[in-house]
Design brief:
Layout lengths: L3 E10 L5 E10 L2 H11 L1 E8 L4 E5 L4 E3 L6 E5 L9 E8 L6 H10 L14 E5 L5 E3 L2 E10 L2 E11 L3 E9 L4 H13 L2 E2 L2
Antiparallel strand pairs: 1-2, 1-3, 3-4, 4-13, 5-6, 6-7, 7-12, 8-10, 9-10, 10-11, 11-12
Length: 197
């Protein structure tokens, strides 16, 4: 069973109403347990640390954490816009799964062909990307891509990053109507990712 490592910052009040910030390191077995602890302790902010894949990130206030059913995937949903919840996921891979970072990029972005099953999933059809949308970022690349899944077209932002220990696939999955509305939140989230040893 995977343990969830969260560094939480809680505001504690003493008898004389003097407030202070304390850092607490805890392990959680699932998001239900974590959510209950957040409410109980009035936790103000969380930092998710994945030592296996070498990164950490501040958990945004707006995200609703979701169980992914996979030890390699962490994520949640954006606040609903007209009953549509966009998704954010980070999936980690050991570097040995790919020949190189270029091979990783080919699998998730550049090697996919329009109208064909994606190289990363039998359940998704590639609807393309514009080469002008493929940008280099710190330790990786970012690209807007389009996929078909269960008869719906999705607008995605894929961020591929190389850490010291792993390759990360960071996905923002949205509908055509909600992509531009939530993209700034996703961009800010990605900018706050830090690498750990």
């Amino acid at each position: 069973m995977k343990q969830i490592f969260i560094v939480s910052f809680i505001l504690l009040s003493s008898c004389v109403s003097k407030a202070q910030n304390d850092t607490i390191n805890r392990k959680y077995t699932d998001t239900k347990e974590l959510t209950a602890q957040i409410e109980k302790d009035k936790i103000e902010s969380l930092v998710y640390i994945d030592s296996a894949f070498g990164y950490k990130v501040k958990v945004p206030d707006w995200i609703t954490l979701r169980e992914t059913g996979n030890d390699r995937i962490w994520g949640g949903t954006f606040p609903a816009i007209e009953q549509i919840e966009n998704a954010l996921m980070i999936q980690g891979f050991e570097k040995t799964k790919f020949k190189s970072f270029d091979h990783f990029k080919e699998t998730y972005i550049t090697g996919n062909k329009f109208g064909k099953k994606t190289l990363y999933s039998e359940n998704h059809i590639w609807y393309g990307h514009n080469i002008k949308d493929l940008h280099e970022i710190k330790n990786g690349v970012s690209c807007r891509v389009f996929t078909l899944f269960q008869n719906m077209i999705y607008h995605n932002q894929f961020v591929l990053i190389e850490t010291e220990k792993a390759f990360l696939w960071i996905q923002f999955v949205a509908t055509p109507e909600t992509y531009e509305l939530n993209l700034p939140k996703f961009t800010e989230f990605v900018a706050e990712i830090e690498f750990v040893e």
